[in-house]
Each structure stands twice: as structure tokens, then as C-alpha cells.
Design a protein that fits this description.
The complex is a heterodimer. By secondary structure, chain A is an all-alpha fold. Chain A is built from eleven helices and no strands. Chain A has a domain of about 190 residues: MetI-like (MetI-like fold, Orthogonal Bundle). In chain A, helix 2 crosses helix 11. Helices cover about 75% and strands about 0% of the residues of chain B. Chain B contains 14 helices and no strands. The chains are: A mainly alpha, B mainly alpha. At the A-B interface, helix 5, helix 6, helix 9, helix 10 and helix 11 of A face helix 1, helix 6, helix 7, helix 11 and helix 12 of B.
Chain lengths: ~280, ~325
Amino acid sequence: MATPQTATPLRLFTRRFRKETTAVIGLVIIVVFVILAVLAGLISPYPPLEQNIPASLQPPSVAYLFGADKLGRDIFSRILHGARISLFTGLSVVVMASSVGTLVGAIAGYLGGWWDEAIMRLTDIFFAFPSLILAMAIAGALGPSLQNALIAVAVVSWPIYARLMRGQVLVLRDQEFVQAARAIGMSNLRILLRHILPNTLSPLLVQASFDMGGTILAVSGLSFIGFGAQPPTPEWGVMISEGRNYITTQWWLTFFPAFAMLLVVTGFNLVGDGLRDILDPRLNK
Amino acid sequence: MGGLLFVMLGVSLLTFFLAQMVPVDPAATALGANAREEQIAAYRAQIGLDKPATVQYVIYMGRLLRGDLGQSIRTRRPVIDDLGDYLPATIELSLAAMLVAVLVGIPLGVIASLHRNSWSDALARMFALVGGSMPVFYIGLLALGIFWRQLRWLPGPGRLDSAISAPPHISGLYTLDAALAGNWSLLTNAVGHLILPALVLGYFSAAVLLRMTRSAMLEVLGQDFVRTAKAKGLRDRVVVGRHVFKNALPPVLTTVGMTFGSLLSGAVLTETIFSWPGLGRYATTSVTTLDYPAVMGVTLVAAIVYPLVNTLVDIGYSLIDPRVRVS
């Protein structure tokens, strides 16, 4: 006789997630791109930087699935390698921003008082800046490169996590299970890590999902205006910038990188929407 | 008000710190490649670069309080004068984009909420999803390519055709100034140039507004007083117009204020593509040329705009929602 499955939180979550059709579509898109990015070296028909001048500006064909750019580089191969860069940028910025933001927000919420006041005023300052202008100023000061663009975007992205985390901690701090943990003499750090953090993950996860998409757009925007990845890197923003003069005549130079970006960002936004609906049942009518 | 002042102080510190990180000597840049060592040293002393960073910051703040943002290395003009030239272009573009966002996003959001789960709802949500996921610089390039270079329906980059001179300066908004001067051909030209960048920049905000309007409307539609209004025989249009929409408006208005900040970020890319001489383009050129007095000025001004708009939204709030006035 089959034993009935116990409803662990993870199983419950998976069951609900599967009901969100659009979120599943989003997840499938992301998984496909992750696979393509991982296998980019194996499945690209050409090396992403290999030039072949006779093939310059060739339209999509069997030999060049998405066409070739001005230098005869295969756009399909460049998109695959670009997926690596974009997923990496999204992930690294979100990891940097969320770990710093969560830590800072947890300190603010848990310690309260002067710490809270100071940290929240600091986030106010960052929120006042239009993020791209600040990121551009930081990237410019550090010197234009992909790595510096990542740092710049992370610097403007952490405050939202700090605020989210602080709000969560303020709610949880005075709940009975935390008081109980304190009563048995647990250290502040242990309470934060073992008891508070796991209970705050869901809103952070939603934010992280939206931020993945937002970051990919922001970093490629910085690359597009010259403050991020530099040519000949097969970064999608760089590719659009390089193809800008051919946008209507040789449309494939810019269309495919833009479409790839649209797909990936849509994927993360759909997953973010789905997660929010599951984790916030109020909106899920 | 105190909060705003504190934010400004922090913003000035942050921009000053950024300028310190730039690996370029502003004095050497300003004097050019042919300057001799002692000339550069003399110029450094003249503009205060030989002093410690803390002293420099105090001097900078002192100037700032007198409205002096320093001198641009690139244009050799006071930064405040440069900003005075560039800011109106960005305000004009942002207002036009906001108009697009409000006129497109709110009605579509209302329609989507009233026909929930129908094809029009699906279409509207698709429109919003694409708007939030599309690289704005690609749409901008594509729009220019199609509507200007191919079809020639709309004028190209810039605020006016190159043969046309700007209207007499009143507000700095070309459309408004042209209308005030009664110059209709100038007005048509300025509006023509404004259409594409405003549509491109407004699309993202329209998407955000659409989603917010839809969910706010849905929330109100599910409440008891709406059922009561319907039950007592009010026509649908009255129920939606007078009861539902009015109650769904506050969160939508807040979103309008918040998207204004992202509008400024989007303006960096949009202005670059459309050669729109606004703050975003000024910022881009200034960062590219490592003209950090100008960068500090432009980030400072950009950082004032956001809290300012939010304060205006709060005032707008109290006009439509009397409860806010009490508290």
C-alpha cells in the first residue's frame, strides 16, 4: 500500500507552483537558456569571435542560423556565448546585492534603535538616485569593463533587499519562537541565521527573481552605451550596439540578441510573478 | 523636509567620493596634453586639488550651498549653466513619456480588470510583460529605423530639425515655448521630434501602470460596497467611474510618482539613442570624458528630482483622499 505523501513545505510549494502555468513557462525558458549557456562551447557551430569576412552580413541560412554580422561572425554562436554572460551577470549581481542587503537589513531590523535609523537613512540616499545614472557614474569612475558594470549595478541594487529584510525581521523579532530562542540563551547571530532568515526567504526570492531580469537589462544597457562589456565580447547589449546601423537593412544583427534578452528577462519576470502569487495568497484570487 | 536635507547631504558625499575614485587628474585633463608640470601644479592649487579630501569636501559643500556646482572640464562653463540648458529637455521628454504612460497604461489596466481572464485581459498583460522585459535601447533604435529612416513618417534625432532654431527661451520646453510664441510650424516640428522618444520611454512606465491599475481595480471590484452599488441599480459606468476607479486611484498615483524615478534612468538610454540633449545624455558624455564636476552636478540634480516628485505626489494624494489630510 502506498503511503500518502506528507506535505512538506517544499512539496506544497512545488504543487502550487505547477498550477501557475505562466510561471512554469518562465521556468522552462530559464532552464533552456541555462542549458544553452552551459553547452555553448559544445553546440556553437563557430567560435564566437571567429571572423569570416566573405560571410559579412549574410542573412539567416543553414550555415548561419541567425545570420552573420559585419565581420562575418556567426550570430547564433555569439548569442549562445552571450547567454553565459547575461546569466552570469544576473546571478552575480543578485548574489552580491542580496547578501549585502540581507545582512545589512537584518542588522537594522534586529538591533533596532540607532543602527536601524542610520542604515535606513543610508538606503534613502541610494533610493534617491536614478539607478542607471549612479551605476554609470560608478562604472565610469572604475573604468569601463563588464566586471565594473556588475559592481556598479550591485551597488545600486542592495538597498531594496535591506528594506525588505528589515521589514521582515521587525515582524519576526517579537514573535514567540524568537523570544523562546532568546530565553534559552541562543546568540543573536544564531537566532538570525537559524530562526529568522529561513522565515524571510520568500519575499527575498520574489525580489531576486525580478532583479535577475532587471540586472540583465541594466548591465546590457550599460554595455550598450560603452560602460560595460567591451567589443568584441559577445554580450547582447554590445551586439545590439555594433549592429545599430543595420537595424532595418540587416535586421538579424540586432533582432536576435534583443529577442534573446526579451525571452530571458520575460522568463525571470514570469517566475517572479508566479512566486509572488503563491507566496502572497491575497493577490491570488 | 529634514529627511530630504539629510538625503541631499548623503548624495553629495557619495558623488564626491565617486569623483575621488576617478583615476584621472582633473587638472591635467583640463589643461591638455601640452601643459608643463608646474602649470598643472599651479592649477591644482588654484582649484584646491592639493588639499586633503576632507578639506576639499568642505570647500565643495560651501560652494554648493551658494549654488555653485563648479566648472565643467569639458565645456569650460559653470556646471549649473550646463544643467540649466539640459534639464528642460529631460523634463519635456519625461512629461511627454509620463503622458503616454498614463494615457495608455491606466485605460488598458481598467479594461483588463473589467474583462478579467478574457482575450483583452490576456493581450493587455502581454503588452505589460513585454514592456517590462524589452531592452529600451533596442525599441528606440528600431523605432528610429522604421519610422524615420524607412517610412519618413516622423522626424529623426534631436529636439528640432537642424535648420530650425529654438523658440525664445521661456520655460525651456520647446513645445510650450513654441505655443506661447504662437509659432505653429515650430510647435509641429517640436511635437514631431518628441513623439518617438516619448513613446519609447513611456512604454516601460505604461507597462508598470497597467499592472498596478489592473490589480488595484480588481481589489476594489471585489469589495462589498461595489456589490451594494450594483445591487441598488446603478449603471455599470457609474459604478466603475464613481466608485471603483476613484478608490483604485491612490496606489496608481503612487506608482506614477515612483516610475518617474525610473523614467530618469530610462532617459539615459533613450536620450543617447535619440540624440536628445537632456540630463541623461549630459551624464553619459560627462562620464565618458571623466568630467567629474559635471557628473557630480548631474547626479546631484537627478537625486533631488526623485524625492521632490514623491513630495508632489503626496500633495496630490491629499487632494483626492481626504483621509491623508487628517493624519
